[in-house]
Amino acid sequence: MTQQDESTQPESAETTPTRVVSGGSVRFAYRRFGNPSATPLVFLQHFRGSMDNWDPALLNGFAKDRTVITFDNAGVGFSSGEVPDNVAAMAQYALDFLDALGLSQVDLLGFSLGGYIAQHLALHHPQLVRRLILAGTGPGKGVGRKSWIENLLSEPSAQKRWAEGLPFMMLVTSCRRTKVKK
C-alpha cells in the first residue's frame, strides 16, 4: 500500500495548524483552511466557546467550496485579552481580528452569542459583511433598547444602510405549530 504524502494534502478542520495574529491589543488564535475563495466564511462561536467547539464535519463541509476561518475572540481559548461584558465590545474585537487579517469583505456564520456579534457587525459595518448566516440566535435587545429589526424599520440611517446593501441574511430556525384537540 502506498502512503500519501501528507504535506500535499489539503488542510482540514482536524489538520490545520493554529495560527496567531495581533489585532488591537489582542493576540488572536485562529485557523484558516479550505478551498481558496475571494470571500471567506468566518465562524463566530457561542458563549464560552472556542474554535475547538465547532464540529469538524460542519467546517469541512463548508471548506470544500470556500475558505473557512475560525478564531478565538478576546479572552477565549488561546487568544489573549479579557472577555468583554457586552456584544458591542465583542464585535469590536472581532472587527480587530478581521482587520488584522486584512479582510475587506467576509461572510459570517454566527451561532448563539456569535449570532449577536454577527448582527452587530452587519449593522455597523455593512460594507464588510457580504452574507450573514444566523443559527440558534435572536435579534438581541436590552432593557429600553430597540432590537436591530426595530432599528431597521424605524431609523432612516438604518433604512439607508439596508437600501445600500445590508447583506443577504438567512436565519436558521425551526418552528412547528400544532393544534391541541380538546
Structure summary:
By secondary structure, the protein is α/β, with parallel strands linked by helices. It has helices spanning 56-63, 87-100, 113-124, 148-154, 156-163; strands at residues 19-23, 26-34, 41-44, 67-72, 106-111, 129-135, 168-172.
Structure classification: alpha/beta
Backbone CA Rg: 18 Å
CATH architecture annotation name: 3-Layer(aba) Sandwich
Unreliable stretches covering 5 or more consecutive residues: 1-8, 167-182
What can you see in these coordinates?
With 182 residues, this protein is α/β, with parallel strands linked by helices. It has one domain (13-172): Rossmann fold (3-Layer(aba) Sandwich), CATH 3.40.50. The chain is built from five helices and seven strands; from the N terminus they run βββαβαβαβααβ. A seven-stranded mixed beta sheet has the order 1-2-4-3-5-6-7, sandwiched between helices. Strand 1 (19-23) and strand 2 form a beta hairpin. Helix 2 crosses helix 3 and helix 4 (148-154) packs across helix 5. The longest helix has 14 residues, at 87-100.
Which short descriptors sum up this protein?
27% helix; 182 residues; 5 helices; seven-stranded mixed beta sheet; globular; disordered N terminus; Rossmann fold; disordered C terminus; alpha/beta
Topology:
Layout: E1 19-23, E2 26-34, E3 41-44, H1 56-63, E4 67-72, H2 87-100, E5 106-111, H3 113-124, E6 129-135, H4 148-154, H5 156-163, E7 168-172
Parallel strand pairs: 3-4, 3-5, 5-6, 6-7
Antiparallel strand pairs: 1-2, 2-4
Helix pairs in contact: 2-3, 4-5
